[in-house]
Amino acid sequence: MLNPESNIKFIKGVGEKRAEMFYNLGIFDVDALIHFFPRKYEDWTKTKTVAEVENGENITIKATMITPVKEHMIRRGMTLYKCRFSDGESVINVTIFNNKYLAQALRVYEDYVLFGKIEKTFTTASMSSPKIEKLDTGVRIHPIYSTTGKLTSNAIAKVIKTALESLDEIPETLSDDIRKKYDLISLDSAIRQIHFPENEEEASKARKRLIFEELLTLQLGLLKLKSNKKNETPLKITKDFTSEFTSLLPFKLTNAQQRAIDECIKDMQGKYPMNRLLQGDVGSGKTAVGAGIIYTAVKNGYQTALMTPTEILATQHFESLSKMLDGKGITIRLLTGSTKPKEKREIKADLIDGKIDLLIGTHALIQNDVEFSNLGLVITDEQHRFGVKQRANLASKGQGIHTLVMSATPIPRTLGLILYGDLDISILDELPPGRQTIRTDVVDSSYHERLYKFIRDAVDRGEQCYIICPMVEENEDSLDIKSAEQLAEGLSETAFKGYNLGLLHGKMKAKEKDNVMKAFSNGDVQILVATTVIEVGVDVPNATIMVVENAERFGLSQLHQLRGRIGRGSKKSFCVLVSDSKSEISRSRLMTMKRYSDGFKIADEDLKQRGPGDFFGERQHGLPKLKIADMLEDIDILHLAQNCAGDILKEDYNLDLEKNKHLCDAITKMFRNIEY
Ligand code: ADP
Ligand code: MG
Question: Is the pTM of this model over 0.90?
Answer without folding.
Answer: no
